[in-house]
Amino acid sequence: MQTLFKNGTLITAEGAYRADLLIADGKIAQIAAQIAPTAATEVVDCTGRWLLPGGVDVHTHFDLPVSGTRSSDDFFSGGRAAAFGGTTTHIDFAIQSKGGTLRAAYEAWRAKAEGRAVIDYGLHMTITDLNETVEAEIAQMRDLGITSLKLLMAYKGSVMVDDATLFRVMQLAAQHDLLVMTHCENGDAIAQLQADFVAQGKVAPRYHALSRPAVLEAEATGRALALAEVAGCALYVVHITCEGAVEALRSARKRGVRAMGETCIQYLYLTAEALDQPDFEGAKYVCSPPLRTAHDVQVLRAALSDGTLQVLSTDHCPFWFAGGVEGRLAGKELGRDAFTKIPNGVPSVEERLKLSAGLLEASRWVAVNCTQPARIFGLYPRKGALVIGADADLVIWNPQKEGVISARTHHMQVDYSIFEGLTYRGAPERVYLRGKLIVLGDQWLGEAGQGEYLHRNTSAWL
Known about the structure:
The protein is α/β, with parallel strands linked by helices and 462 residues long. It has two domains: 91 residues, Urease, subunit C, domain 1 (Roll); 320 residues, Alpha-Beta Barrel (TIM Barrel). The protein contains eleven helices and 19 strands. A hairpin with a 2-residue loop joins strand 17 and strand 18. It is globular, with a radius of gyration of 21 Å.
């Protein structure tokens, strides 16, 4: 079966141009100024539309166990929501349990996706407990299709690692040409600040942000960059939120450190004032690192535009606001008596492309949402690009379509939107996964289990 897309404008990381595009057997088969259809070819008229590669979101948390519950989107509902937003590939995090093996974490996350994944996916490996067995397993990660290791410098007493562990994993990653990813916050200082606030009876959601000040993110970012520089590994800093962290990354790159960074769509729009909402409404916006200031929003937007930051992701990790009722998992209500118990995370996987379209020039928009994440995480050119031989993951984008974001119309399995009432211009009309039409306007045409696990190649340094 062949499908021919005619009269559209192709948007790539390199620029925009008018062309026809033919797909066959799930791959991009031809790109030319004019392609004549055969009698057996389905023709899609893309006049006035953009064609772009399916989005690649390299930071999601589907079906994540945390804080005595689980994130409310699994590999079916989360992947479907992503597809409605124009994302056709994501990378989730397999998380090692304390005392457990990396292989067990890999198998647990593959089981979560089995029969449920609706878009293609890969896995990062999160290391929480380093020992000789785990050190030996790091050398075997490529056999599982995993080329990136994540470590968290926060969440003391849970998944946080100390500097010795971080540095040792960096050394091993350098030996095996693996990319290290870091969540950069000073977990020791945060734990003390949290204890201080709780002891003073300051337990409202706003104290979540106050206990995790930007300077502690900047400090940890600089520390991680310094350790990576000495270890000689490539480093990718996840969910950067503040000016200090941006400047630390910019400085490291200037001195030749193989360092890259991402921010997330929520940090380009929202500020910490959202946590001040009354009646516990601020809990909806609790994520880590927390939302920052209006100044940081502008700094992050500029850093995405000028190339200091290479990727826009989501860190999608939703929890019900009113959980534990009507068959729902427990959610944000777990922290009504103390902000330290609020599950950290927000729903955003569906809104990344729509909300970033108006912030960036078109080719840069495709670069940070599609092509560069695919390059950095070993998926290019199969994913993230409109090139012959690539998977036919295509988004037919209407740049004139306008709308308002609302929990009433989104497809994420959660009872609120952090972007409620924001307007957008530009949205997907058709979304294809390996040549199969899975989203047509408001219709879902996909099916559970169609998503494939992706074995990733060596990461590129951009």
